[in-house]
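Justification of computing resources. Each target in the renewal requires a structure prediction run like the one illustrated here; the chain below, 325 residues long, is used simply to show the kind of job we budget for.
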Amino acid sequence: MFSKMALTRGCLRLRGRRGCYFSDFLHYPTVYVSQLTGHPLSQFFTTAKRRSIISKVKRLNAKYEQFLERNFPRFYVIYSTFFRGFHLLYLDFKEVTGIKHKMADQGLKYNQLHYREMEKLRQFRRDIIKVIPVVLLSLPPFANYIVFVLMYFFPRQLLIRHFWNLEQQKEFMEIYHSIRAEVYPNAVKNLIKAVSRFPDKRLKNQLLQLGTKVQEGIHPEISQLYLVAKPFSGRPLEIRYINARQMKTLSKVMFLTPHLPTFIMRRRLRSHIMEIHHLDQALNVFGVHNLSEDELRTILKPRCCYIAWCYFPQITTIPEKASKP
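Resulting structure tokens:
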């Protein structure tokens, strides 16, 4: 960049002439760059340069994608899915920011939001928690290449749903369901052990019968669950009084880490269950019939296990015969 620019009003006004001669510059004062700050011409040059750079980058990116699609089709699928995931994550960030501003302006709490807003906040928080370790690993120089390789070989463990293709989404949902279904028998065994110390014999017998039916692969009816709901509001089956073994089992069902101190694990379980309870209430207000097809597939299908555990965490289970969704 030169220290000053020789601009003349005469050259700008000569519309009919093809150019300006050097002698024209001598009749007008020199304008320095510092004097152009805030001038419309500086804004015009900056905007034009920005547009030119953006257009060039878009053209180069389009050519690069065409090259990958033509010569490396498999890598192109990974490449396009990866950048599409960043775009979706950015859109989620903008939407969550808008919800946060709405809550601050109107003084709303989490349980007062619309169902979709509550679900967006909950899912975005879980996604960010999962993404943060990957971002931290990629901070050192040249570590991003190693992270990219790890993400390629371990997409379920390191990536979130935005970076999965359709086949991976179906595959991972089945894996998550099978992992959860493997934990249910232990939850029922712990229930039977806890019920044996219950003082009310009638409720005790009903709970034992339900537990036995579940172990045999029979789903209990909702009316039967409501009959035995009272014991779960106090000792020994309420979330505040269950033992550490049952808390670890429930943490695995809800995909929370069980390797924490007992008081932290109990607090996380209670917070998670209350959050799902608020979501369930908001869904009842919103109406299941108003959900889109994607929401029914991606939200309600895994959520049905969560809603049942929210009310009857020690009873509800899915038998091994029906472990597949």
